[in-house]
């Protein structure tokens, strides 16, 4: 049995209500995903989400609230992802880890259905459609 890998990230929305996503191309992956990543030892999910957004997008995010979580299996690993709603004031997010990501962009909920999404994002889209997650 594999151990649970804990992750956390943020939904960032622009003034149009579109969701900010990073495009990952590292390790043979080609997918759009929420900014976020692994929760380190002695770190809370909220702290990890804040740290990861600063590392990946060069922004200081203000966490508004936790909006949900999910478990999923990918590459024979089990993950637990905690989603937060975050806000960035006065900064423009941009890719700060070009070895892993090539693009950051905002997408409407309808546009998400046409993108190749990470397993985590697929779960988030379903949770929103089912009314389990509300922004």
Sum up the structure in keywords:
single chain; 135 residues; alpha+beta; Nucleoside Triphosphate Pyrophosphohydrolase; four-stranded mixed sheet; three-stranded antiparallel sheet; 3 helices
What would you note in describing this structure?
This protein is an alpha+beta fold. It has one domain (4-129): Alpha-Beta Complex (Nucleoside Triphosphate Pyrophosphohydrolase). The N and C termini lie far apart (34 Å). Helix content is 21%, strand content 40%. It has 3 helices and 7 strands. A 4-stranded mixed β-sheet has the order 4-1-6-5, with helices on both faces. Strands 3-2-7 form a 3-stranded antiparallel β-sheet. The longest helix has 13 residues, at 45-57. The mean pLDDT is 94.
Query: If you compute it from the alpha carbons, what radius of gyration comes out, rounded to the nearest whole angstrom?
Result: 14 Å
Protein structure class: alpha+beta
The CATH homology group name: Nucleoside Triphosphate Pyrophosphohydrolase
| Assigned CATH class | Alpha Beta
Instruction: Give the strand order, joined by hyphens, for the main sheet.
Output: 4-1-6-5
Helical content class: 10-25%
Q: What's the total number of strands?
A: 7
Give the SSE string.
EEEEHEEEHH
| Count of individual helical segments | 3
Distance between the termini: 34 Å
Low-confidence stretches: none
Provide the CATH topology: Nucleoside Triphosphate Pyrophosphohydrolase
Percentage beta strand: 35-45%
Largest sheet: 4 strands, mixed
Shape: globular
